[in-house]
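Supplementary Note 3. Input sequence used for the single-chain structure prediction.
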Amino acid sequence: VRLVAGTDGGIADGKPHGILPLGLQDLVSGGLGPAQALAAATSVSADALGLGARKGRLRAGFDADLLVVEGDPLLDIGDLQRVEAVYLAGQEVGMPVG
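The predicted structure, written as discrete structure tokens, is reproduced below.
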């Protein structure tokens, strides 16, 4: 089974931007490993959407959409909420508010 993670974050007040880390924490709490949960939200999702040739992985030539966090989400998936910087297409877009 190919598991794709998503939350519909940003579509309504009840689902604000930035809730994906909570969804990934739920996956890990449910028994998925942190690496599997991260892949479900990145490379697996990009592949499922037909964007795997340019998104979802850290590779030369890819779009370089990055979330930089303090800590290691492979050891503690909760570290995804400790955001240091956000990059879109290789350009820093700043820190999220809130």
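DSSP finds three helices and three strands in the chain. Residues 4 and 49 are 10 Å apart (CA to CA).
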